[in-house]
Amino acid sequence: INALVLTLGVVGPLSYAEETQKGFHRLIDATIPQGWDNQLRNEPGINLTYLNKRRHLFRMDKPRQLEASYYGGLTLGNVYTYASAGLIARWGSRLKNDIGPPTISTGFPGLPAFRPHPEFNWYLFAGVEERAMARNIFLDGNTFKDSHSVDKKPFVTDVQFGIAFHFKEVRISFSNMFRSKEFEGQPDATQYGALNFTIYT
Question: Cα separation of 48 and 7, whole Å?
Fold first, then answer.
């Protein structure tokens, strides 16, 4: 599988990330996040990502299947620039319906596209990815303006696991991510969860 993805966006106050994060924390009655006084300045974000993925599907006790895949990728842009490589395994039903669960970049490859199927199906997934980071705007700061920055680590490791469900034109997936420290002086590694809801049109 070969994929070429162009990502466009914006960082800084125009992204409304501060309002979104604080609003969600109020909604779930969590501690209001700090540090937004050091937010990056407005800057358009452009990233081009190439991914090559090889899949190996094994038949198990019907209708269950096991898939093992490995991949490599390259991302170029003013937001992220890095090379990546990883392994991911999935176990469940009708694994050919998609190439993996959608994820929050930067991280494991997964596309929102999938094939609808009239019957319910599901799969468990787990994987590991290593990235060699040349640029991360959220750590290095703005490209053309002075801004806050920290010394980033050259290599970052992600470990991810979760579950995905398909039913007709709907897919729901939940994943849990563990990420190694990304910059010097970071007190702890990062852990977060992601819930994705996709409708096929």
Answer: 6
CB < 8 Å & 24+ apart, contacts of 33-41: 38/148, 39/12, 39/13, 40/11, 40/12, 40/137, 40/138, 40/141, 40/142, 40/147, 40/148, 41/12, 41/142, 41/145, 41/147
- Write b or e for each residue in 104-117: b if 16 or more Cβ atoms lie within 10 A of its Cβ, otherwise e: eebbbbbbeebeeb
Tokens 């620039």 belong to which residue? 81
Residues 6+ apart with CB under 8 A from 74: 49, 50, 82, 83, 84
User: How confident is the model over 103-143, as pLDDT tens digits?
Assistant: 666 655 555 556 666 778 899 999 999 999 999 999 999 99
Q: Determine how many CB atoms are found less than 10 A away from the CB of residue 8.
A: 10
Q: Is 17 in contact with 9 (CB distance < 8 Å)?
A: no
Do 110 and 52 contact (CB within 8 A), yes or no? no
Q: What is the pTM of this model?
A: 0.84
Measured CA to CA in angstroms, residue 168 lies from 114, 121, 181 at distances of 10, 9, 39
Q: How far apart are CA 190 and CA 163, in angstroms?
A: 20
